[in-house]
Amino acid sequence: MFSKCLKKVLVRNVRFYSDKKVGILGIPFDQGQTKKGVDSAPTAIRNYGLINKLKTIENLDIRDYGDISYKPETVSLKPVPNMKNLDHVAACTKEVSKAVNEIITSGRTAISLGGDHACSIGTVDGHIQAKGSNNVAVIWVDAHGDLNTNYTSDTGNVHGMPVAILVKELADYWPYLPGMDWQTPLMPVRNIAYIGLRSVDKYERFIIEKFGIPAFGMEDIERLGINVVMQMVMAKIDPYNNKSLHVSFDIDSLDSLEAPSTGTSVRGGLTLREGVSLMEAFYRTGRLNGIDLVEVNPDIGDKKDVKTTIDAAISILMAGCGHFRSGILPKVEDLPKPK
Q1: Is the CATH number 3.40.800.10 carried by domain 2-334?
Q2: Tell me: the pLDDT tens digits for 110-148?
Q3: Where are the domains of the chain?
Q4: Is the full-model pTM beyond 0.90?
Q5: 146, 204, 258, 274: which one is catalytic?
Q6: How far apart are CA 112 and CA 93, in angstroms?
Q7: For this structure, is 252 an active site residue?
Q8: Residue 265 is inside which H or E element, if any?
Q9: Whether 146 is catalytic
Q10: Are residues 294 and 251 in contact, defined by beta-carbon separation less than 8 angstroms?
């Protein structure tokens, strides 16, 4: 009887433990903001053992595609007011989009190691190119909305603008962006949701309310719990359970005590346990095809801070690749045969 019950459990969950392929892409990019060091994160995360730790996940096929390289336009582009380093952003994200498209089209989950959050202009665009604009749902796990335009940003830093660049409903809010002709805002605003917000500008809040974007701040998570929030997000942006999922995870979504080595930390964030729980749940859908891990900055804090932050980043990535804290059940075919 026990054997039959165990077999039923395994059959019901077997799709979670089937072979999985991932592609690792480093994006050593720091031009979307002003603090140096975030470009060294892909190397630091690898050096802390990301690949070896991923190899402990059963049946995970891993390919490291190396780091993105790019060259900004050699002819000086006309600057856009209050938008820093657009030539670098445009050139880098163009290459990122191509690479992510290739990884996902090849049947792998694209794991992108930033770099600052401007990288996600390219990662999300590449996912859309691979799967279609209406077929990708994006979960933006972040303390910030990243929903400013050059007209509303207080800093001109592009890492605070990627969502506004990606969504098609805000296309008319932008001037012409030299160097960005390769990219068309294709993502419907109904296909994006936020988790972990706690530092949102007035204009960003206006856009969230205007378009009805599901946006769960820390007070919502405290009141409802992370699992309920995740279920509400999925019911809103993927009601038929048929979209390809892209999680853009800013390490500053975690509380500063969990991830101190980041450029724009905000106290009162997600616990690492909540972040891992989210990624485990997204993995269980069987449709998680894009993961960004951005804004780790090894130049901020001491060695302990850096280790704490990178350990947290690796835990998030492992959860998104099929590592379960409760352990992995064997496949049905590996069960001992009754005598």
Answers
A1: yes
A2: 999 999 999 999 999 999 999 999 999 999 999 999 999
A3: 2-334
A4: yes
A5: 146
A6: 12
A7: yes
A8: none
A9: yes
A10: yes
